[in-house]
Amino acid sequence: MIQLPDEFREKMKRLLGAEYDSFIESYEKERVQGLRVNPLKISKEKFREISPFHLEKIPWAAEGYYYQAAERPGKHPYHEAGLYYIQEPSAMAVVELLDPKPGENILDLCAAPGGKTTHIAGRMQGKGFLLSNEIHPARARILSQNVERLGIGNAVVSNEDSGSLSLRFPGFFDRIVVDAPCSGEGMFRKDETARLEWTPEHVKVCAARQEEILSNAAVMLKPGGTIVYSTCTFSPEENEQVIERFLIIHPDFSIADAGTRPGLYPGRPEWSKSGMEELKKTFRIWPDKSEGEGHYLAVLRKCEDEGSVKKQTMPEYSSDKSVIKEVETFLKELLVNPAPLLLRKEYILFGDQLYLIPPEMVDFKGMKIIRPGLHLGTVKKNRFEPSHGFALFLKKEEVYLSIDLSADGAEIIKYLKGETLTGDISRSLDNKKGWVLVNTDGYSIGFAKLAGGILKNHYPKGLRWM
Ligand SMILES: C[S@@+](CC[C@H](N)C(=O)[O-])C[C@H]1O[C@@H](n2cnc3c(N)ncnc32)[C@H](O)[C@@H]1O
Known about the structure:
Elements: H1 6-16, H2 20-25, E1 33-37, H3 44-50, E2 56-57, E3 64-67, H4 77-80, E4 84-86, H5 93-98, E5 105-108, H6 115-124, E6 129-133, H7 137-149, E7 155-158, H8 162-168, E8 173-179, H9 192-197, H10 200-220, E9 221-231, H11 240-249, E10 253-255, E11 265-266, E12 283-285, E13 295-302, H12 321-334, H13 339-343, E14 347-350, E15 353-356, E16 369-371, E17 374-380, E18 383-386, H14 388-393, E19 402-405, H15 410-416, H16 424-427, E20 434-440, E21 443-451, E22 454-457
Parallel strand pairs: 5-6, 5-8, 6-7, 8-9, 19-20
Antiparallel strand pairs: 1-3, 1-4, 2-3, 7-16, 9-13, 10-13, 11-12, 12-13, 14-15, 15-17, 17-18, 20-21, 21-22
The structure holds S-adenosylmethionine.
């Protein structure tokens, strides 16, 4: 049995009373593993058909499945093609409750490594604007890689603190996720560091930080908008008590009634300071009652009549004619139907890197931005080189030149290792030349460049399999 902090055990015993034995026994069970299908790439029905894994439905998550730990889906070509995201099952409840819609402005405030962001983007279907923010620079880069891997084109990845963002985006977002940094008691089965770092003082520090982040989120929400607050911890100080204080300080907010959900249990008013009955409408996932590690969730709604929303200024899009001509020529050569992208004019150049930013993104001068939108590629002298992210965004049927490698074959492994592709594969493209979209079982995974019958591998060096 794993070693739990003594004070944690005592506290949970005090809180749970008769329910304690069952709770503590759950630490003797194996942790459960989940993956979430990425609808930007594949439908869940199709994925079930082609999946080499033994999948079982997660009751509270439309795109979520349990898999067997020994199957290691993180090491499969489908993972590199962004067909799914590996995510702890209870964490999938957050976006279910958020219920994002195509066309909305959505903020994921504490977003790395990207579980909620990739889930939200799947629901948005490429329409609307997703700002995905992470305070720690190294974690923000991992988040950006996951946005790329899942082929997301309408997200901006930023590296800001919540206070700075709130000055920039007052009343701007329809929905916000605050998946707050917490003491991680729900991670104890899988994460030794969370067990070692846990102290009652750490719980208090987390609670103060959560209140600050949630207050900043409140500023950025439109009247009538929704925040989902969540943690992966059990302590009432970071859950019911944070929501209780938030509602007292923000009378323009209330807890939304999200009904009942399979596997989700009511919040505990008796663990708040005032016994606030409304807290019953928040949710808990318990590791002994549901097949998940544990979570707390609250859906908060801002009332409708909050005065006018500040008008935002738009960014200065790149107007460099030679760059735009270069990329437009490239898109016409690559794409069967380039019109939808050619109509877009929201180009931004970061050095020699060209991005197409979501049209709703406001002026971001002075902000720390890791990924300002869809990364189209690098502007070189008299030519344009497409990015890996653009390959993952595209679909096989959208391009003139493509090859398809079986996920079970040797060629895909060669490609993922960065080797040059020769023989039958390049011959299948006759004497053509140019950028070729590489697919695995029909799903885009990267680019190669065809010249003289040889396909030069453009799978990024940093991602290559050893
Ligand atoms: C629970 S994790 C987020 C997990 C993520 N939402 C996902 O689904 O993959 C909390 C995140 O908050 C970040 N964080 C830490 N301190 C913060 C602060 N003061 N303000 C905002 N975010 C913070 C952490 O770096 C961490 O990435």
